[in-house]
Amino acid sequence: MPCFPLFCCRRLNSAGRTPEVDEEFAVIENIKLYSYKELRAVTDDFSPTNKIGEGGFGSVYKGKLKNGKLAAIKVLSAESEQGTNEFLAEIKAISEIQHENLVKLYGCCVEGQHRILVYNYMENNSLAETLLGRQKYSIEFNWTMRSKICIGIARGLAFLHEEVHPHIVHRDIKASNILLDKDFTPKISDFGLAKLMPPNVTHVSTRVAGTLGYLAPEYAVRGQLTRRADVYSFGVLLAEIVCGRCNRNMRLPSE
């Protein structure tokens, strides 16, 4: 059963970093470090033509690494303290686990104010874009494919909730965070809001984070987080996949 090491790895010490920054990253385990220069090169200086996504914490670019692999390069906003917290949370949550239905983290870049995550590239974009967005008419999502996607997401969540220790609650399960590879195998992505659940606790009281329309009532109203919050979000996502339509209810739920 995968477990999370939370100890400092000296490999992360590098030029251009202050002791305060090193302290921020003392929880990161041994992962590959990319230089900012290298990532600029593989994205053509983060060219708009290579941009494949954009969210509240930054932009995502497509790039081809030196080993020939295509990568999704997620550049977090340097201005936001929340962006740094998101960066740390995402690395802690995903760096030491592997599953067919989770994105794979290749490494990261930590130079000056730059916070960049490097993931494997997903050829068929996100479920939000491919099924529910502009590209939905170019691909036939028959019931066999939809069933495969639903089951894959469920397996990924079950892995996070049951097999990883401490358990992980994703907190932002939604169509734009489900990526599809060349075979339309779903991959859960964007672990920036993920929470590690301590053993032998019924819930964690925390600030409410996530996306309106996907929030479980007990979490949205009282801030009581359990794994069931992800299950609720998954239920909303299932309805979207079955109907082929986005959830338009952006109101806070009531208990």
Architecture blueprint of SSEs:
Blueprint: H1 19-24, E1 32-33, H2 36-42, E2 51-55, E3 58-64, E4 70-76, H3 81-94, E5 105-111, E6 114-120, H4 127-130, H5 143-163, E7 167-169, E8 178-180, E9 186-188, E10 195-197, E11 204-205, H6 217-222, E12 224-225, H7 228-243
Parallel strand pairs: 1-5
Antiparallel strand pairs: 2-3, 3-4, 4-6, 5-6, 7-10, 8-9, 11-12
Organism: Opuntia streptacantha (Prickly pear cactus)
Family: Belongs to the protein kinase superfamily.
Keywords: ATP-binding, Kinase, Nucleotide-binding, Serine/threonine-protein kinase, Transferase
Question: What proportion of the residues is helical, as a percent range?
Answer: 25-40%
CATH class of the largest domain: Mainly Alpha
Rg, rounded, reads: 18 Å
Amount of beta strand: 15-25%
| Tally of individual domains | 2
Distance between the termini: 35 Å
Secondary-structure element order, as H and E? HEHEEEHEEHHEEEEEHEH
CATH topology of the largest domain: Transferase(Phosphotransferase), domain 1
Mean pLDDT over all positions: 83
Count of discrete alpha- or pi-helical segments spanning 4 or more residues: 7
Instruction: Count the E strands.
Output: 12
CATH architecture annotation name of the largest domain: Orthogonal Bundle
Structural class by secondary-structure content: alpha+beta
Low-confidence parts lasting 5 or more residues at pLDDT below 50? 3-18
**Relevant CATH superfamily of the largest domain:** Transferase(Phosphotransferase) domain 1
Biggest beta sheet attributes: 6 strands, mixed
Q: Shape from CA axes?
A: globular
Strand order of the largest sheet: 1-5-6-4-3-2
Pfam families: Pkinase
GO molecular function: ATP binding; protein serine/threonine kinase activity
Family: Belongs to the protein kinase superfamily.
Catalytic activity: L-seryl-[protein] + ATP = O-phospho-L-seryl-[protein] + ADP + H(+); L-threonyl-[protein] + ATP = O-phospho-L-threonyl-[protein] + ADP + H(+)
